[in-house]
Amino acid sequence: MSEDLTQVAKTRTDKFMEGVIWRNPGQPEFHQAVHEVVEWLMPFILANPRYQESKLLERLTEPDRVVSFRVTWEDDAGQVHVNRAWRVQMNNAIGAYKGGLRFHPSVTEGTLKFLAFEQVFKNALTTLPMGGGKGGSNFNPKGRSDREVMRFCQAFMTGLYRFIGANVDVPAGDIGVGGREVSYLFGQYRRLTNQFEGMITGKGLSFGGSPIRTEATGYGTVYFVQNMLAERDIGVEGRTAIVSGSGNVAIYCVEKLLHLGAKVLTVSDSGGYVRVKDGFTEEHLAYLKELKEARRGRLTEMAEKFSDVEHFAGQKPWGETAELVFPCATQNELDGAAACQLVENGAIAVAEGANMPTDLDGIKCFLDSKVMYGPGKAANAGGVAVSGLEQTQNAQRMSWSREEVDKTLRDIMAKIHTQCVTYGHDGNGYVNYVKGANVGGFVKVADAVLACGLM
Ligand code: NDP
Ligand code: 2IT
Predict the structure, then answer these.
(1) Bigger pLDDT: 421 or 48?
(2) DSSP single-letter state for residue 431
(3) pLDDT tens-digit profile of 390-431?
(4) Residue 159 forms part of a structural domain
(5) How many domains does the chain have?
(6) 230 and 340 share a domain?
(7) In terms of Cα–Cα distance, which of 362, 365, 381 is closest to 316?
(8) Which CATH number characterizes residue 329's domain?
(9) pLDDT tens digits for range 349-365
(10) pTM
(11) Are 141 and 235 within one domain?
């Protein structure tokens, strides 16, 4: 692109962002997610005037609707609590709304708008027919009993059920929402509607869940890295890796890396990170699963259990030296200074299991350094992709084998990678996966929006 056009694109982006910020006050995460997309889309839109004339960016940054509701529930001591909850139905041009539910005290409407916005592009990249949405509540599940979580989920679904359905909007898990919560939510939907339908994904295997859904996001992120590395004729085996987070995504990212022969040094939680001296073994992984999935414990316990595991309270793992980097905890956990430190320490590839874990300065550092950088909407799309496969199995009243689903997941991650290369290569051997994912996702949604008339 010529200097002039680059300048026009920058001026247009700044002006567009002024409007977004003015229309959505107090929602910095949403502003950030939109900025990251628009920055790379603007040159493409300038070169394709039909997208500009039909105000597509304005339309895609305004949710179809946001449902906001109160959740009133009772704890084990009989105390009444009131939480806020939302479902953001962002865009259903290519399929019913689809996206997870997050239960975390930090959740606001702006958080869910950023996640729903990202989800629209991510879901388009999967090649499956899914629109984008996201929901959740500022409920904090930490320290709550099973019965309390059940009562919360029942109250939450009582507020939500009339707005969702297998052909309308299909939620799933995200931070603080896993198999236990999805099951309670599904049970309450059945009770309220008397319908057994695939209106949520991540269900148990005996009632409509898909094999590999639990593993899908973590596995998919590693499959994505395999595709990135293959561009340079290298593989995962023998490479050092650092992972952040220790929830659903992080655990299965570690598992796949371990099975492929990588040396995984770290995982983290909100209390700090642990380093395993010579890398995770099967024994470390089995302990981590039991600790986090069954006991919902803290990583400090892992350092107490193993003599080769050290805990670093209040710290993130980004000062460690590794070739592969997997941020799998939460948004904005990796800033510009951390990104540059990772590059200095020899990182060659970054794949985001989490949504928007790297801030705008961090992204700039990775791209300027020509590190292979796979943004969340491409790298972590395996989770929602297998959710899509769960929907298909539900619609067919069939259930596929683990092998079949895993193979389809690999194929989908390869196709996402190809789209990123198609739209993101610079002609000199470097692939800008941020540009590739944003333009690739946009084209599919934008063409569907245009074809269906003004709305
Ligand atoms: P989990 O709730 O299973 O785990 C979240 C992990 O991240 C925990 O280790 C948690 O630590 C840590 N974490 C969460 N919030 C914070 C915070 N504010 N500061 C520090 N650490 C934090 O969630 P998932 O593994 O499902 O989700 C992780 C990320 O992956 C999220 O960004 C999510 O949106 C994204 N994602 C998830 C998908 C899925 O299928 N589940 C699909 C695609 C993306 P602690 O327990 O101490 O809070
Ligand atoms: O961010 C995500 O893609 C998810 N939390 C999974 C969504 C889904 O519908 O499986």
Answers:
(1) 421
(2) B
(3) 999 999 999 999 999 999 999 999 999 999 999 999 999 999
(4) yes
(5) 2
(6) yes
(7) 362
(8) 3.40.50.720
(9) 999 999 999 999 999 99
(10) 0.98
(11) no
Active-site residue (options: 98, 113, 122, 134): 134
Asked whether residue 178 falls in the same domain as residue 228, the answer is no
Last residue of a domain, one of 355, 374, 393: 374
Q: Summarize the chain as % helix, strand, coil (round to 5).
A: 50, 15, 35
The DSSP 8-state label assigned to residue 168 in this structure reads T
> 120-129 as b/e, with b when 16 or more CB fall inside 10 Å?
bbbbbbbbbe
The secondary structure element, H or E, covering residue 363 is helix 360-368
What DSSP letter does each residue of 108-138 carry, written as one string?
-HHHHHHHHHHHHHHHHHTTSS--EEEEEES
Q: Are strands 80-91 and 132-137 parallel, antiparallel or unpaired?
A: antiparallel
Q: Tokens 């001591």 belong to which residue? A: 77
Find the farthest-apart pair of alpha carbons in the chain and give their distance in angstroms, rounded.
67
Same domain flag for 244 and 175: no
d(CA 299, CA 311): 8
Owning domain of residue 121: 65-196
User: What is the atom index within ligand 1 of the atom nearest the CA of 172?
Assistant: 40
Tell me, yes or no, whether 109 and 137 share the same domain.
yes
- Provide the 10 A C-beta neighbour count for residue 348: 18
What's the CA-to-centroid distance between 305 and ligand 2, angstroms?
33
Domain boundary among 135, 163, 196: 196
Identify the residues whose C-beta falls under 6 Å from ligand 1: 106, 173-176, 178, 217, 245-250, 269-271, 328-330, 353-355, 380, 383
Residue 43 in domain: no
Establish if 29 belongs to a structural domain. no
What residues pair up with 84 in beta bridges, in sequence order? 70
Handedness of CA 159, 177, 129, 66 (dihedral sign): positive
Helix (H) or strand (E) holding 52: helix 49-53
Please indicate whether residue 134 is annotated as part of the active site: yes
Q: In terms of domains, do 355 and 223 share one?
A: yes
First-to-final CA distance of the chain: 33
Looking at the fold, whether 156 and 275 belong to one and the same domain comes out as no
Using alpha carbons, select from 160, 181, 151 the residue that is nearest to residue 80. 151
Ligand 2 pocket residues where CB is under 6 Å: 98-100, 122, 172, 174, 201, 355, 383-384, 387
Show the 3-state SS of 15-51.
HHHHHHHHHCCCCHHHHHHHHHHHHHHHHHHHHCHHH
User: Residue 190 sits in a domain of what CATH number?
Assistant: 3.40.50.10860
